[in-house]
Specification:
about 300 residues; 8 helices; Dihydrodipicolinate Reductase, domain 2; Rossmann fold; 2 domains
């Protein structure tokens, strides 16, 4: 199997380390302007290389350009576009010639996998997910001011932390936003928003709250769900599920997984109907949600 990685920043390098662990992968080429990168390929040689699997992991603001190039020059390929799908919502008026997935790899986290099964058929009273961290400490080799997240175009908390939008949709279904708040509260040297708070609802839960910020010194990623008789907390960072009843308490501890590797293995399955990866349509819905929020 021939693999092409477009873009070789921090996430592109992580994809490379993960994908090379798959036995069926024979060749990996990297499309980048950095001439020091090993296995580098130029745009002129991409067509003759004819990759079977393509990973778009360049800057978010360049995703759409790379996507159009792949769609116009290849067909019947499997393509993973790193999340978020695009910098903004696009109404596409052309045919998709390949099978596209988007890199919301938290779907493969053991906590999300457990909750997906646990929630089947259950009515929810209240759903809340919250993610906080500090952008200054995200990447060791890149100063945060120069990161993709710092840019108003393609960055910001809404796009960078859009995992919360995707896994909420994945766990409890599409939702309608009732109120939203976002903006810049911290002294981070960025031009984009650094927090958001969303209040929504759907058929399964009358009250859905999604919130995140990138300036906190408290590093958390929690999902709290209230049912009629029990409360459930999923801790994505600490890999735990806690179930609270009136007199009973249960804690489940999971072993961490390589989420990128799990995602690649899933996408490369022979039966696409069994793939859990985020579809192009689902990721476009996340883009629509973010665009809707920013318009208000």
């Amino acid at each position: 199997m021939n693999v092409l990685i477009i873009g070789y920043g921090s996430i592109g390098q992580q994809h490379y380390k993960s994908i090379k662990k798959i036995k069926s992968v024979k060749n990996i080429k990297i499309l980048t302007n950095d001439i020091s990168v090993r296995n580098r390929i130029t745009i002129n040689n991409v067509l003759s290389y004819n990759p079977d699997y393509i990973i778009i992991s360049n800057r978010t603001k360049n995703h759409f350009k790379a996507f159009k190039f792949i769609n116009e020059n290849f067909s019947k390929k499997k393509v993973l576009i790193e999340k978020p799908l695009f910098e903004k919502f696009f109404n596409l008026n052309f045919k998709l010639n390949n099978t596209y997935y988007v890199g919301f790899n938290l779907r493969y986290h053991p906590v999300i996998v457990y909750l997906k099964k646990f929630l089947i058929g259950k009515r929810i009273n209240y759903y809340n997910c919250n993610c906080t961290s500090n952008l200054k400490y995200w990447r060791k080799n890149v100063t945060y001011e120069k990161s993709n997240t710092a840019c108003k175009k393609g960055g910001g908390a809404l796009l960078e932390l859009s995992h919360e939008f995707d896994y909420t949709n994945y766990l409890i279904g599409k939702y309608t936003i009732k109120k939203n708040f976002f903006g810049k509260l911290s002294n981070l040297k960025i031009s984009a928003e650094d927090f958001f708070l969303i209040i929504a609802s759907n058929k399964r839960s009358k009250f859905i709250q999604i919130s995140a910020n990138i300036f906190s010194n408290v590093n958390i990623r929690l999902i709290n769900i209230e049912f009629q008789n029990i409360s459930v907390q999923g801790d994505i960072i600490n890999n735990t599920i806690k179930i609270f009843g009136k007199k009973k308490f249960r804690k489940i501890k999971f072993t961490p997984k390589n989420l990128l590797l799990e995602q690649h293995k899933d996408i490369l399955k022979k039966n696409p109907k069994k793939v859990s990866a985020c579809s192009f349509k689902e990721a476009l819905e996340v883009n629509r949600i973010v665009s809707e929020i920013k318009k208000k």
